[in-house]
Specification:
Number of strands of chain A: 0
Helix content of chain B: over 70%
Structural class of chain A: mainly alpha
Largest sheet of chain A: none
Distance between the termini of chain B: 15 Å
Largest sheet of chain B: none
Oligomer: heterodimer
Order of helices and strands of chain A: HHHH
Distance between the termini of chain A: 45 Å
Low-confidence stretches of chain B: 233-239
Shape of chain A: flat
Shape of chain B: globular
Strand content of chain A: under 5%
Helix content of chain A: over 70%
Strand content of chain B: under 5%
Largest interface: A-B, 78 and 110 residues
Order of helices and strands of chain B: HHHHHHHHHHHHH
Chain lengths: 103, 239
């Protein structure tokens, strides 16, 4: 089997297993309050990490400041004014990144 | 009472689907970008099968980058697995909000995507899983269709990064983050800690590891300081 198909089949099985693990093993049960507080903080922690990594990481894993940073900063400026502008942030972020890259 | 519960479920499904549309638009564009980049490495069928059955953008891009560099299957699998490892803690976060049999819970778990998972967060550790499922549906369709468009129309599209699409998702996650930090100083503290961890590990750790490690910032919830600041404790028992 080619590397491509081996990779795809393995990642199908692994991804399904990872996504099922929490729901199957501890699903449907309430957890103690400290655990629930930790869960509540997962979303801000994960989102912050995704923003940082996807904005400032180059293809070879170094920290870089490029057109993406300009786009995300512009999206941030829009969000300061209009916190609910989800799609607006995506459009402004992409357009500004494209413009900076074209310069 | 069952009637009221039904109305609530229908409401979650409807608002979830509507909330999923802008995510689907962004996802479709990233899917096109994946298809364009994957075709020369994987051919025409494999990228579409991968998007339909792995359905995890960051893992697919990570595995593709390894294969494109000639890194072989095991390195590609490891890269994809590290990118998807965050779904472990995310699934644990979802677990208390899931009802029904183990099979049903496992299936709902498959509909986890970063954006819809974050949008389904209702605070205090609770998630609206009906909302998440409905929000993921248009995103799934857009991801698979986008990949196919990228594979078959890649020559017409050219370099997807020229359109700034690589800034679309961080911008979107930033928008979701603006909603999260309003939940209180504890959320702000978790964000600061997560950013510090991600920045510190990015130059030294393999891709994916900085993101999982940054999730450890949520352990601030175990501190006594967290108990004092927990907004859900002062609101009383809203389910």
């Amino acid at each position: 089997m080619s590397d491509t198909w081996t990779t795809i089949l393995a990642l199908i099985v692994i991804t399904v297993a990872i996504k099922a693990s929490g729901p199957v093993l501890i699903g449907g049960r309430p957890l103690p309050a400290p655990a629930m507080r930790t869960i509540a903080l997962m979303a801000p922690a994960l989102l912050a990490a995704l923003v940082v990594v996807q904005t400032f990481t180059s293809a070879d894993g170094e920290i870089v400041v490029d057109a993406r940073a300009a786009g995300v900063a512009a999206a941030g400026a829009l969000l300061v004014v209009r916190r609910t502008a989800l799609l607006g942030a995506v459009v402004v972020g992409s357009v500004v990144a494209a413009l900076v890259r074209a310069l | 009472m069952p009637a009221a519960a039904d109305v609530q479920v229908r409401d979650s499904l409807r608002t979830g689907f509507e909330a999923g549309i802008p995510i689907a638009v962004a996802t479709g564009l990233i899917g096109i970008s994946f298809g364009v980049l994957a075709r020369p490495v994987m051919g025409t069928v494999a990228p579409i099968v991968m998007s339909a059955l792995v359905f995890a953008g960051s893992a697919q891009f990570a595995a593709l980058a390894v294969l494109a560099a000639g890194g072989g299957a095991w390195a590609a699998i490891a890269a994809g697995m590290l990118m998807n490892a965050r779904f472990g803690p995310m699934g644990i976060a979802l677990a208390p909000s899931l009802e029904g049999s183990a099979l049903r819970r496992a299936l709902v778990g498959q509909t986890m995507v970063d954006a819809t998972w974050a949008l389904a967060n209702r605070g205090g550790g609770r998630f609206d899983t009906d909302f998440m499922m409905a929000a993921t549906l248009p995103t799934y369709v857009a991801w698979v269709v986008g990949t196919a468009v990228g594979v078959f129309a890649g020559e017409l599209i050219g370099d997807p990064d020229a359109l700034g699409l690589d800034a679309a998702f961080p911008a979107f996650f930033l928008a979701l983050l603006f909603g999260e930090v309003r939940r209180g100083p504890l959320a702000v503290a978790a964000v600061v800690a997560a950013v510090a961890i991600a920045l510190a590990l990015t130059p030294v750790a393999p891709p994916g590891v900085p993101i999982i490690a940054a999730c450890l910032a949520a352990l601030l919830g175990l501190t006594t300081w967290a108990k004092r600041w927990d907004p859900s404790e002062t609101e009383g028992g809203h389910a």
